[in-house]
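Hey, quick one: can you model this chain's 3D structure?
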Amino acid sequence: MSKIKIMTDSSVQLTPEEVKKYDITVVPLSVTIDGKTYLDGIDISRKEFIEKMDEAKELPKTSQPPIGRFVDAINKLTADGSDVLGIFLAKTLSGTIDAARQAAQITGKENKVHLVDSELTDRAEGFQVLAAAKDIEAGKELPEILKHIDHIKKTQKLHLVVVNLKNIIKGGRLGKLTGKVATLLNIQIELQMPGGHLIIAKKGRGKKFARAFNERVLDEIRANKDKIKEIGVSYVSTEDKPKPMIEFGKKIKAINNDFNVLVRETSPIISTHAGMNAYAILYYTE
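Sure thing. Here's the predicted structure for all 286 residues.
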């Protein structure tokens, strides 16, 4: 039985401790702010990116890893005969998984590289990575690991509130007319990604919408409290404003103290499109 190593991308929500513990290879995407390009997580931290984005003249640009970076990673990971399990952000959001697939073909190691579209990103992608890592640690083989990941994909949930529509309008995620009207009316939107497809689930005005969203999500978590173990709360905010998210994480934890709740800034890839003060709750049921 060959060893299995895990590869993912930098949009994933994992702590440095988790990456180190399970020896996960994180391939960085690139972000460009006012003409300067950074490797996500290497040249710039999440907090630094959010601060720079807040001050930027233009909407930052994000780029998937170049194929050559994947070629290098695959060659390194398979050098000792290991297989590679690559889990990446949704194909509908980025061409990252396609770049990894092309790299596997170039190296001639398609039979050693197994790629999974997480159908989401952030902590939901992280749930799949961590589940696979723990399965590998437990000595499980690839078919069983892939079956476990598929179960997580089918039950994972994303609830994302976009508070300021400026970035999502500039990025072309909403039609220009819809965006202008929404901005004038102080509209906020809730996005979900069933089956890997981004949809506008609800929309409403101002703080009242956000309060209703929070209560609705908390009610949903209460209804599934015996089936949920892992929850992520990810946000886009400058360093002086994380307190509401920390408090929201505490409210979730109060529902079931056994929940593992991670509250953390999201990646530059998500921040760029979601915009300032956006936040998301991600979980899956077992």
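One thing worth noting: The CA atoms of residues 42 and 87 lie 20 Å apart.
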